[in-house]
Each structure stands twice: as C-alpha cells, then as structure tokens.
C-alpha cells in the first residue's frame, strides 16, 4: 500500500520497462538487496527504490529488513490478474481466426 493506504494497480506497476526488468530479475533468485539490484540500471539508488516502492504498493514485491539492508523478493500472485485478462483475449482472437479460416475455406 502507498502512503494514502491505496493498493496500486498491478497493470500500472508493470507498465514501466524498468519495473518489468526488476520483476524479471527477482524471478531468478530467492531475494536480492537493493544494492545488487541497482547495479543493473543506469539510475541512482533513489530512482530504483521508487520503482521498487511502486511494485511493493502493487504487492508484486515483498521487502524484508535484514540489519541496515532491505531485501526484495517477488510475489507473483498478483500477476495472475494479468494472465487472466490476456487469456480472455487470447481466446477471443483464436475464435476469430478459426472463423476466418472457415470462411476462407468456403470461398475456395
């Protein structure tokens, strides 16, 4: 949740390529500290932290304090919403293509 107590939209959170790259990096590991994540980007610590904060607000990453370090790990559960949405349209287009192929076969 953000400072206003609202959960950020998962679609908004994954819309940015930097945040998608962060998510992808977190799929390969149990967790990573901020300093290991930020070396993969041409931006400062604050900018990477802001991206992680947006992902955290969407419940896509979980932050855990270990001493003075914050470690991040992926929570892929909210991505199911996107998968369901894309799956609906995948079925929509498959149906249209089947109908188009049937129409084209009739025209032969």
Account of the 3D structure:
With 108 residues, the chain is an alpha+beta fold. Helix content is 58%, strand content 13%. A three-stranded antiparallel beta sheet has the order 1-3-2. A hairpin with a 2-residue loop joins strand 2 and strand 3. The radius of gyration is 19 Å and the shape is elongated. The model has no long low-confidence stretch (mean pLDDT 90).
Show the helix and strand layout:
Layout: H1 10-14, H2 17-27, E1 32-33, H3 34-38, H4 45-57, E2 61-66, E3 69-74, H5 79-107
Antiparallel strand pairs: 1-3, 2-3
Helix pairs in contact: 2-4
Features:
about 110 residues; alpha+beta; 3-stranded antiparallel β-sheet; 5 helices; 3 strands; elongated
Given helix and strand content, the structural type is alpha+beta
Distance between the termini: 58 Å
Element string (H = helix, E = strand): HHEHHEEH
Shape: elongated
> Average pLDDT across residues?
90
Strand order of the largest sheet: 1-3-2
What count of helical segments does DSSP give?
A: 5
Outline the biggest β-sheet: 3 strands, antiparallel
How many strand segments? 3
